[in-house]
TrEMBL record:
Residues 13-128, 322-431 form the Plastocyanin-like domain. This is Multicopper oxidase family protein. It comes from the Bacteria. Keywords: Membrane, Metal-binding, Oxidoreductase, Transmembrane, Transmembrane helix. Belongs to the multicopper oxidase family. It comes from Glycomyces rhizosphaerae. The keyword Metal-binding applies.
């Protein structure tokens, strides 16, 4: 804590090395360590203050993905930290409990910086969620899982060449969870909550267990669902998060996998973009006796409620050609539009390409109203800040802009497939 009562976090962005393959070192970047960064945790209403020191020899930034906060604290391309510079954002946590994350956002180089290892989780807590009997013991029955893929070259270094015939960039054939290859987890409780983050630069995951057992989706990007939804598959595109609860039997071993998924590609392009891949994510090894003290409550979070709201403006966004939104590429000097604080807008977002995109908006959580005119599938019915866009499909998103205004400093919206974002599939808006 500092004298203002804020909780202070020191973040040191650094380069390093980790021994991943046969004990041979891979060069990496990380926050407060050689690879990835610490889980940050703070409670709604709490004041947080950061000292972010850039120990790299190039500029970078730290963006708080999913966070509702003033644009000057957002950590986008306008808040780059120079080598050896310090950035000191501070704000009051002002949203429901959720699994968020942080990562760099320098103009044109986000994919490179994330791939090298700059990313971490940011867990928001609140009183309502603390009062529930959900699994919530960190690292025991409440487990963060930063899921990423990597390619390695012959020298055991991360290979950042785009994959052959891929429209999405780098698709790795090896999975890392929280920076570990071949990860496993020792299960000691019947119910385990997994906070899944797709921290990959381009890969879509279609999560499911090796025996196809059902599990419960309890939270999407913006927080807990009103009621759990049972499923045996869950797709997450880059940047999306989900919290799931799975039940284990004593003594069993079970693998979380990513299964083939339909990304809407024509012909063999699906295969070149990972659509046929079956990948082991993590092995779960259950003890012979499992503690059984938690449950999934009947009611948890609040449902998005913007379907009936008064709409102040409608806008349309068409993503096309790898690097454009509405025919333009990102220009940090161009602010695309302004929205009014305190109003609700509907954004109609269309993927006009024949390949996958997704759509992320800073500062807000939105409600997916429709997908091509239909009610969205259950996995898209909670609060979202990033949504997968299937080819040739339209999504209507409703969002409220609240609390913070700044006529000069914008927030971003963009595709979170990072090679597309870095190529310019991004725009900027201000809240007035
Ligand atoms: Cu996760 Cu604009 O980023
Ligand atoms: Cu973001
Ligand atoms: Cu894209």
């Amino acid at each position: 804590q500092d004298s203002s009562g804020a909780r202070v976090f020191n973040l040191e962005i650094q380069s390093g090395k980790i021994a991943l393959k046969d004990g041979r070192e891979t060069e990496t970047w990380g926050v407060n360590g050689p690879f990835l960064g610490p889980t940050i945790r703070a409670k709604r209403g709490e004041e947080v203050a950061f000292a972010v020191h850039n120990g790299l020899d190039e500029g970078t930034s730290i963006h708080w993905h999913g966070m509702h906060l003033p644009s000057v604290m957002d950590g986008g391309p306008h808040q780059e930290v120079e080598p050896d510079g310090v950035w000191a954002p501070q704000w009051t946590m002002n949203q429901p409990a959720a699994t968020l994350w942080y990562h760099p956002h320098p103009h044109g180089r986000t994919g490179n910086h994330v791939y090298r290892g700059l990313a971490g989780m940011f867990i928001v807590d609140d009183d309502e969620s603390a009062g529930l009997n959900l699994p919530s013991e960190y690292g025991v029955d409440d487990v963060p899982m930063i899921v990423q893929d990597r390619k390695f070259n012959g020298d055991n270094q991360f290979d950042d060449n785009a994959s052959f015939m891929s429209m999405q960039g780098i698709l790795g054939d090896e999975i890392m969870v929280n920076g570990t290859l071949g990860p496993y987890f020792d299960v000691t409780t019947r119910l385990v909550r997994l906070r899944l983050l797709n921290g990959s630069v381009s890969r879509l995951y279609n999560f499911g267990f090796s025996d196809d057992r059902p599990f419960s989706l309890i939270a999407t990007d913006g927080g807990l669902l009103p009621t759990a939804w049972e499923t045996d598959r869950l797709q997450l595109s880059p940047g999306e998060r989900a919290e799931i609860v799975v039940a284990f039997e004593p003594g069993e071993t079970l693998t979380l996998r990513s299964n083939p998924a339909d990304e809407g590609y024509e012909g063999p392009l699906g295969r070149f973009n990972g659509g046929d891949d079956l990948l082991d994510i993590c092995e779960f090894r259950a003890a012979d006796t499992l503690a059984d003290t938690t449950e999934i409550p009947e009611t948890m979070g609040t449902a998005p409620d913007l379907a009936e709201a008064e709409i102040a403006a409608e806008r349309s966004f068409s993503l096309s050609g790898f690097n454009q939104i509405n025919g333009e590429s990102m220009d940090p000097m161009r602010i695309d539009f302004g929205v009014r604080e305190g109003t609700v807008e509907v954004w109609e977002v269309e993927n006009a390409d024949g390949f996958m995109h997704n759509f992320h908006v800073h500062d807000v959580q939105y409600q997916v109203l429709t997908v091509d005119g239909e009610e969205p599938p259950p996995r898209l019915r909670g609060w979202k800040d990033t949504v997968q866009l299937n080819p040739q499909t339209k999504y209507r998103l409703a969002m409220r802009f609240a609390d913070y205004t700044d006529p000069n400093l914008p927030y971003m919206y963009h595709c979170h497939i990072l090679v597309h974002e870095d190529s310019g599939m991004m725009g900027q808006f201000v809240v007035l």
